[in-house]
C-alpha cells in the first residue's frame, strides 16, 4: 500500500514538473540548480538530524531499502536535459513518459505473476510501461513514438542491472531520442491548456 501511495506522489509530481518545463522552458535551469544544491544539503542534514515535516516527507516518499536520493537524481537528469537538448517538447515528453510509465510499471509490477528474476522485474510491469507510454507518444510521434516507448520500457526493465538510478538517465534518454526525430509534433492544444494555468 505504501508503494502505491509513493508512486501516486511520483506520478502527480512528474506530471506537474513536465508541464512546468513546457511553460517555463530554459528559465527553469537556475531554479533547478538552486533546488539541487538545497536538496543535497537537506539530504545530508536529514541523515544526521530529524527535521520536522522535511524528514517525514522524505521517509514517506522513499522506498524502505533506499536512501531517498531519487528526487535529487531526477533533478540532475532534468537539468542535463535542459542544458543539452534544445527541443522543449522532447524534454516535456521525456519527463511525462518517465512519470507515467515508471509509476504504472511499479504499481502493476508488484502484483505481476511473471517475474524475470535476473532483472528483478515482471513482464506485467514492462507491459504497463510500454502500453501507457505508447498511448501518450503515438498521438504526437506516430509509429516512432511506439518505438521510443519500447526502448524506454526496455531500459526501465533492465534498470536494476545498470546500477544507476533511472531517475537520472531515463527522462534524458527519452528526450534525446525524441529530439532527433525529424518531424516535430504539433502540440497546439497543450500550450492552450498551459495558458489556462
From TrEMBL:
InterPro entries: Dgk1-like. One of its GO terms (molecular function) is ATP-dependent diacylglycerol kinase activity. It comes from the Archaea. The keyword Cell inner membrane does not apply. The keyword Oxidoreductase does not apply. The chain crosses the membrane at residues 7-23, 29-46, 67-85, 91-114, 126-155. This is Phosphatidate cytidylyltransferase. It comes from Methanocaldococcus bathoardescens.
Amino acid at each position: 500500500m505504501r508503494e502505491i501511495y509513493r508512486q501516486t506522489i511520483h506520478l502527480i509530481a512528474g506530471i506537474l514538473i513536465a508541464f512546468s518545463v513546457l511553460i517555463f522552458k530554459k528559465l527553469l535551469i537556475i531554479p533547478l540548480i538552486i533546488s539541487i544544491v538545497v536538496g543535497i544539503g537537506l539530504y545530508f542534514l536529514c541523515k544526521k538530524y530529524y527535521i520536522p515535516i522535511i524528514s517525514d516527507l522524505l521517509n514517506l516518499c522513499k522506498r524502505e531499502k533506499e536512501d531517498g536520493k531519487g528526487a535529487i537524481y531526477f533533478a540532475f537528469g532534468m537539468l542535463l536535459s535542459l542544458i543539452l537538448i534544445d527541443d522543449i517538447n522532447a524534454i516535456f515528453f521525456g519527463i511525462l513518459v518517465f512519470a507515467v510509465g515508471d509509476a504504472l510499471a511499479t504499481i502493476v509490477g508488484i502484483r505481476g505473476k511473471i517475474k524475470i528474476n535476473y532483472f528483478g522485474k515482471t513482464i506485467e510491469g514492462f507491459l504497463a510501461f510500454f502500453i501507457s507510454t505508447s498511448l501518450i507518444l503515438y498521438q504526437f510521434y506516430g509509429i516512432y513514438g511506439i518505438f521510443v516507448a519500447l526502448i524506454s520500457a526496455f531500459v526501465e526493465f533492465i534498470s536494476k542491472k545498470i546500477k544507476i538510478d533511472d531517475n537520472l538517465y531515463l527522462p534524458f534518454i527519452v528526450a534525446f531520442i525524441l529530439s532527433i526525430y525529424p518531424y516535430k509534433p504539433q502540440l497546439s492544444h497543450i500550450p492552450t491548456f498551459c495558458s489556462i494555468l
